């Protein structure tokens, strides 16, 4: 019997998993499901840690665009390969990996078909003990990172990397404005600092801004105390405006972001945590020749590039709190409270 065949034989046949039916994370159900053997070019990954996103709150409420109902939630998992399909080459049992957010986004641009391979929204995700995934979706976790840290990479880190170092990377000396101190934002601050930018972070909390300062962020603004934070950004930049904005706020922050960006600057349209329902003011954006860049996570290729930067600079993800698998609903509640800085993680194995 081959090594692979032995490993497959010793695989459990049952895997515990959470499911949501879009009726709130409070109603997440923990249940047992049959675990099949990996076929062809699939591998079985034993999940060690899962990190939560703002998106996971939306999926749990049933308000994520095109989401599947009755789904295993969560996109961001880190684990080890425990079984290989017969056709898998180049990977071995024990390799530490993350599946990419969209399993089929290998390189290049997103397409409708690729988008619909997004874990934990369109297809069953990673909040479970074992998952079978195609080998083309796998990215190795940098050796110096734990599983908990590795689990923060597929969505928040890669989105931030794509914004800061995507098709038109920021340059050393650029000003980068980061809104808030959530998962995407803190990674963006880390990547921008590592690339020589001057970083301005806004937050609702002075305590959270202290965490950003400890990471090396040069300027901070409390947007609750200073509602004209856009004017403060212009002051900091001598009236010029910033080169890049990590726009996770959406409708309620976009007008101020447009004021705070330099002419022909980049607003990386990423999220909508600030709420509100006014449309994006396209005309004003055109008049200021701003490039509005919609971003949908990133590719395996970009994930690999990002890991080289992480490793070169030994950047450590900021993990705020770790919950056990059985405490998953508490982890969701903590994320929803927005008391966190950086990432909220669920530890399994
Ligand atoms: N397009 C993509 O590819 C992509 C990928 C990942 C995430 N996203 C989106 O990006 C957004 C952030 O996701 P996340 O997972 O990083 O969220 P998160 O960790 O839950 O972060 C939420 C943080 O947003 C900040 N915030 C709330 N209201 C704000 C406001 N008015 N102005 C500035 N900051 C505000 C708060 O930080 P403070 O308390 O410090 O203010 C809060 O802690 C979400 O809308 C998510 O859906 C998009």
TrEMBL record:
Matching CDD domains: MDR7
Residue ranges constituting the Enoyl reductase (ER) domain according to the UniProt record: 24-346
SMART domains: PKS_ER
Pfam families per UniProt: ADH_N, ADH_zinc_N
Gene Ontology MF term list: oxidoreductase activity
Full protein name: Enoyl reductase (ER) domain-containing protein
């Amino acid at each position: 019997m081959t090594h692979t065949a032995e490993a497959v034989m010793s695989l459990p046949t049952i895997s515990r998993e959470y499911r949501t039916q879009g009726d709130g994370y409070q109603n997440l159900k923990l249940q047992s499901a049959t675990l099949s053997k990996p076929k062809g070019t699939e591998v079985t990954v034993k999940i060690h840690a899962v990190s939560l996103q703002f998106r996971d709150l939306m999926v749990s409420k049933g308000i994520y665009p095109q989401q599947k109902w009755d789904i295993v939630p969560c996109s961001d998992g880190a684990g080890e390969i425990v079984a290989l399909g017969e056709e898998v080459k180049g990977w071995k049992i024990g390799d530490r990996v993350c599946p990419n957010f969209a399993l089929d986004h290998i390189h290049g641009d997103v397409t409708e078909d690729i988008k619909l391979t997004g874990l934990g929204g369109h297809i069953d995700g990673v909040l479970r003990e074992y998952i079978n995934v195609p080998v083309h979706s796998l990215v190795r976790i940098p050796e110096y990172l734990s599983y908990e840290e590795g689990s923060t990479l597929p969505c928040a880190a890669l989105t931030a990397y794509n914004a800061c170092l995507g098709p038109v990377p920021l340059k050393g000396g650029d000003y980068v404005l980061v809104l808030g101190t959530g998962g995407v934002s803190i990674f963006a601050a880390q990547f921008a600092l590592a690339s020589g930018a001057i970083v301005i972070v806004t937050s609702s909390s002075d305590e959270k801004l202290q965490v950003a300062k400890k990471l090396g962020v040069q300027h901070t603004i409390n947007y609750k105390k200073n509602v004209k934070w856009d004017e403060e950004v212009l002051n900091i930049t001598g009236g010029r405006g910033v080169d890049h904005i990590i726009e996770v706020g959406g409708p309620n922050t976009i007008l101020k972001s447009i004021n705070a960006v330099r002419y022909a600057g980049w607003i990386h349209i990423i999220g909508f945590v600030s709420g509100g329902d006014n449309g994006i003011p396209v005309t004003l954006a055109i008049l200021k020749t701003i490039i509005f860049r919609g971003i949908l996570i990133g590719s395996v290729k970009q994930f690999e590039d990002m890991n080289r930067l992480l490793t070169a600079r030994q950047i450590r993800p900021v993990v705020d709190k770790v919950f056990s698998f059985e405490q998953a609903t508490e982890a969701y509640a903590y994320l929803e409270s927005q008391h966190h800085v950086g990432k909220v993680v669920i530890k399994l194995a």
